[in-house]
């Protein structure tokens, strides 16, 4: 078999792992009633002419279980950071105290918890779609290799490998979703 007939399973694996990593980052940004620095990671501020993540404008700390504190380095940015937090939709009202912006994390009510589990399910579905897209790309590589002279036995073997990878990653997404939903619903 020549090198142009080889299927790059490592690249397929890397891309599927990337979808899992993205899912974990999205899950980390979901509020569970406990303070986490990951809560403000997706928020970007219009600073110095470009959109900048909050963690590049100040220090983000979690001094207690229900409080996130952002120590903004440039005093001119405090108002912009506060505005970005208010408009981000995370449902937290920032309190400014000099260069510090405090984010008190309120208790989640039952309705909000159910909404967050639905959001988590949407994130999981997006990850599954990304994994299936990688699978489709892998299967397309296999089809091209078949037209270039790959045997049907090799085609079947590669297809089974790609499908097995896909099944493992989809199962991992389901497991991560189940864990995150249980964490959200925990009081």
Automatic annotation (TrEMBL):
It is found in: Cytoplasm. Residues 23-185 form the Ribosome recycling factor domain. Keywords: Cytoplasm, Protein biosynthesis. Transmembrane segments: none annotated. InterPro entries: Ribosome_recyc_fac, Ribosome_recyc_fac_dom, RRF_sf. Belongs to the RRF family. GO terms for biological process: cytoplasmic translational termination. Its main location: cytoplasm. HAMAP family: RRF (MF_00040). GO terms for molecular function: ribosomal large subunit binding. Responsible for the release of ribosomes from messenger RNA at the termination of protein biosynthesis. May increase the efficiency of translation by recycling ribosomes from one round of translation to another. This is Ribosome-recycling factor. The keyword Ligase does not apply. The keyword Protein biosynthesis applies. GO terms for cellular component: cytosol.
């Amino acid at each position: 078999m020549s090198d142009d007939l080889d299927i790059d399973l490592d690249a397929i694996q890397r891309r599927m792992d990337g979808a899992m990593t993205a899912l974990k980052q999205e899950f980390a940004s979901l509020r569970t009633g406990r303070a986490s620095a990951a809560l403000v990671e997706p928020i970007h501020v219009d600073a110095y002419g470009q959109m900048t993540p909050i963690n590049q404008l100040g220090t983000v700390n979690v001094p207690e279980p229900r409080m996130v504190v952002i120590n903004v380095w440039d005093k001119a940015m405090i108002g912009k950071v506060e505005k970005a937090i208010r408009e981000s939709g995370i449902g937290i009202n920032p309190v400014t105290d000099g260069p510090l912006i405090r984010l008190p994390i309120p208790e989640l009510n039952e309705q909000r918890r159910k909404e967050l589990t639905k959001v988590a399910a949407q994130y999981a579905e997006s990850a599954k779609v990304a994994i299936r897209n990688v699978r489709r790309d892998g299967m397309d590589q296999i089809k091209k290799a078949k037209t270039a002279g790959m045997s049907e036995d090799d085609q079947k073997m590669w297809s089974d490998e790609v499908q097995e990878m896909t099944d493992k990653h989809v199962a991992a997404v389901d497991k991560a979703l189940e864990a995150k939903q249980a964490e959200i619903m925990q009081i």
